[in-house]
Amino acid sequence: YFIEIIKNLDSIVLIKRDQQINERRNTKNDADNSFMEIDERKNGTMVPSNEAYELATSMMYSEWMLETPEDIDSWIAVLCPEGKRCCVIAQDNKTKTVNKFGTTLNNFPSLFPYGCRVSNNCPSHRKRTVLDCVYSFKLKKYYVLDIIEWMGVPYTDFDAEFRFYFVQSKLSEIPGINEKSTTNFYPFEVKILNI
């Protein structure tokens, strides 16, 4: 008699466990679906509802090099200083930094296109400049590791060598980007080496 009760209890526990797992899956799917919902903006263009998260997840993350590759001479290295990894987004005449989860860390003016209210910036509602950076707390400076988007053009599909050349040349074209000022609250610098 007790064996039958125990067998029934096991099946009840398994059924309840399956129900809980299904509820968790459904809750997760609902959360994912609401996260991926699309907002319709005033100008009629469709954009993801959480752009900051989408951009932050397109950042590259470093890996340990356990063995020296045979073609090390053709590699490009990016010096990654100690600091907070973030995504810098210049849009709508303001600049903000977000972490890898899309949470806003800081808002400030910068000299990047669409980054502050100065006459040489081109105001546009949907265009933006997005950079993968590290913020050094000690030096109060941003180090640019990679480019994600520049003036509304995505660069994530281009090879690394081109992206590094492009971001270095674009930063060199912006006078005062490596200095602190009222229109550029934090200096920005690129450190890329050919090995």
Mean of pLDDT = 73
Beta-strand segment tally:
11
How many discrete structural domains? 2
Spell the H/E element sequence.
HEEHEEEEEEEHEE
CATH class of the largest domain, anyone?
Alpha Beta
Please give the count of helices: 3
What fraction, in percent, of the residue positions are helical? 25-40%
Q: Would you give the CATH topology of the largest domain?
A: D-amino Acid Aminotransferase, Chain A, domain 1
The CATH homologous superfamily of the largest domain is termed DNA ligase/mRNA capping enzyme
The description of the largest β-sheet is: 7 strands, mixed
Termini distance?
Answer: 76 Å
Structural class: alpha+beta
CATH-derived architecture of the largest domain: 2-Layer Sandwich
What gyration radius follows from the Cα positions, in whole Å? 23 Å
Strand content: 25-35%
**Gross geometry:** globular
Structure description:
This protein has helices at residues 2-35, 51-56, 160-172; strands spanning 38-40, 46-48, 76-78, 84-91, 94-98, 104-108, 128-136, 141-150, 153-154, 188-190, 192-194. The chain is an alpha+beta fold and 195 residues long. The chain has two domains: 2-35; 58-194, DNA ligase/mRNA capping enzyme (D-amino Acid Aminotransferase, Chain A, domain 1, 2-Layer Sandwich). The strands form three sheets. Strands 4, 5, 6, 7, 8, 9 and 10 form a seven-stranded mixed beta sheet that branches. A two-stranded antiparallel ribbon has the order 1-2. It has a two-stranded antiparallel ribbon with strand order 3-11. The longest helix has 34 residues, at 2-35. 22% of the residues are buried. Mean pLDDT is 73; it is low at 5-17 and 31-49. One of its GO terms (cellular component) is cytoplasm.
